[in-house]
Amino acid sequence: MSTWLITGGAGMLAQDVLARLAAEQDDAVVLARKELDVTDPASVRAALAEHAPAVVVNCAAWTAVDDAETQEAAALAVNGTGPRVLAEACRETGAVLLQVSTDYVFAGDATAPYAEDAPTAPRSAYGRTKLAGEEAVLELLPDTGYVVRTAWLYGAGGGNFVRTMIKLEGVKDTLDVVDDQRGQPTWTRDLADRLVRLGQGALAGTAPAGVYHGTSAGETTWFGLTRRIFELLGADPERVRPTTSAAFTRPAPRPSYSVLGHDRWKDAGIEPIRGWDEALTEAFPALLAAERPEG
GO terms for molecular function, please (predicted)? Predict the structure, then answer.
């Protein structure tokens, strides 16, 4: 038994981490933003004093990528200052900190998977703020700080691309979907499992601190993912038509290549996450029930 504290408790990842810990019969507390403001040092110290966690999993984040372009200071408070505040508190108490980060810390113009130690070069405000959080954790907690980068997350517990496509299939004759961005669709339940195992490894002394990549194996495009969603719905995948990023102009640039490498997991004795298609197939009934409960 060990106490875990999970921030950002209203999000789908935090809920899956909590469920994974419950399955392990591990003592855990999950705190939403209204219960814990990670940017407030006094609140963070009080939470750690009250719950005395051995591991803190920081799922709190500013995830509105486009809004961050015009509200970078606000995004930095959550994505950069928040992790620093948590890291300082964890350093005082000796707790392990797992910081969830993103593929947006890279330039997104590679042609081979980004290794964990590949140079970072964020091209958006969101990426810059998340990188600031990474740097704070790694600087303050060289032996007990873990950064887990993920991407293209979906799950039953919140809004995401997969659930949106399930919804749109029922109301649109055709869908134009971007086919020039490559990445790794990742089920929050799979990521939650790796976060828990990484935290357990940290406590056991078998998982070295540092950067890990928590994304599914394989790769596809948003177009390819949507066609697979249609197939799982029993719908005609030809209703999904490829288009380019230029057709969907947004304030923040999207990485054209978000494929991450997973070599670091072997250092912790943990298997990387399975292939994206296998995971999506298993996750799909719960996603469908969440989006179409009447079905």
Answer: dTDP-4-dehydrorhamnose reductase activity
Q: Which domains does the chain have, with CATH numbers?
A: 4-159+185-218+256-274 (3.40.50.720)
In Å, what is the CA distance from 137 to each residue of 96, 130, 157, 200, 281? 10, 11, 27, 18, 35
Only one residue has tokens 């508190």, namely 89
Strand partners, 175: 240
Give the Cβ contact number of residue 182 at 10 Å.
18
Measured CA to CA in angstroms, residue 124 lies from 145, 250, 251 at distances of 25, 11, 9
Cα distance between residue 278 and residue 28, in whole Å: 29
CA distances from 282 to 42, 101, 154 (A): 42, 25, 13
Cα–Cα dist 243/175, whole Å: 10
Structure tokens at 124: 């958006």
Distance of CA 161 to the CA centre of its chain: 13
Give the integer Cα–Cα distance in Å for 220 and 245: 15
Catalytically active residues are 126
Q: How far apart are CA 187 and CA 67, in angstroms?
A: 24
Instruction: Show the tokens assigned to 202.
Output: 């940290």
pTM: 0.97
Which parts of the chain sit beneath pLDDT 50? none
**Would you tell me the crossing angle of helices 41-51 and 82-93 to the nearest 10 degrees?**
40
The residue among 54, 100, 126 whose CA lies nearest residue 212 is 100
What is the 8-class DSSP label of residue 94? Answer: T
**DSSP string spanning 163-229?**
HHHHHHHTT-S-EEEE-S-EE--EEHHHHHHHHHHHHHHHHHT-S-SEEEE---BS-EEHHHHHHHH
